[in-house]
Design a protein that fits this description.
It comes from Bisbaumannia pacifica. This is Carboxypeptidase regulatory-like domain-containing protein. By secondary structure, the chain is α+β, with helices and mostly antiparallel strands. It has one domain: Sandwich (Immunoglobulin-like), CATH 2.60.40. 19% of the residues lie in helices and 32% in strands. The protein is built from 4 helices and 10 strands; from the N terminus they run αβαβββαβαβββββ. It has helices spanning 2-14, 54-58, 95-105, 115-118; strands at 45-46, 66-76, 79-82, 87-92, 109-110, 122-125, 131-137, 140-146, 159-165, 170-176. The strands form 3 sheets. Strands 2, 3, 7 and 10 form a 4-stranded mixed sheet that branches. Strands 6-4-8-9 form a 4-stranded antiparallel sheet, with helices on one face. Strand 2 and strand 3 (79-82) form a beta hairpin. The radius of gyration is 16 Å and the shape is flat. It starts with a helix and ends with a strand. The relative contact order is 0.29.
Length: 177
């Protein structure tokens, strides 16, 4: 069940999004390898082209004292809808996750993420007003995403922002679209 929720959360990240412009992180080299899908492709999803890099993920910090807080809501012509009791995903920015974010910006979803990448994604639930808070996060650049259940039962487009977390600091983000 937990793995299924993780897959759903990652799929939500890939469904469509809004993102802040990338933050300047200096020059860094990223190795991108082409991969061939080994499992049947899900309808409506594009195959991944960037392979999961164990080395890139292994180099990520796994512990920290960074905090993230914010609120999830969707602005529609009929009003503002808060993301009540929704899941917020906080995934590190890597070549692998960047591919999914880029596809989402283009309105396409990629295949579900490798379970090894999902292990690095932090998740929190929003309260009844769409507010969320995560603590003990490692420092670094992250994609923060979620979507809102609308009154008619449909889901809003994915809302995604990129943030930089620092140890000992609280970063605030309003996930809104």
């Amino acid at each position: 069940m937990r793995q299924r929720l993780a897959i759903i959360a990652v799929a939500a990240i890939l469904a469509g999004c809004q993102m802040l412009p990338p933050m300047d992180t200096g020059t860094r080299r990223i190795e991108v390898r082409e991969v061939t899908p080994e499992t049947p492709q899900e309808p409506g999803r594009v195959p991944r082209r960037v392979a999961f890099s164990e080395a890139e993920y292994r180099a990520l910090p796994t512990q920290g004292t960074a905090r993230l807080s914010g609120q999830l809501f969707y602005e529609a012509p009929s009003g503002r809808f808060y993301g009540r009791h929704e899941t917020i995903a906080i995934a590190p920015v890597t070549a692998y996750s960047a591919e999914a974010a880029e596809q989402a910006l283009a309105g396409r979803a990629v295949e579900p993420a490798d379970p090894r990448a999902q292990a690095y994604t932090h998740r929190v639930r929003t309260d009844g007003e769409g507010r969320f808070e995560a603590s003990q996060l490692p420092p670094g650049d992250f994609y923060v995403s979620g979507s809102v259940t609308l009154p008619d039962g449909r889901r809003s487009p994915l809302i995604l922002h990129q943030v930089r977390l620092r140890n000992g600091q609280t970063t605030r983000v309003n996930l809104r679209r």
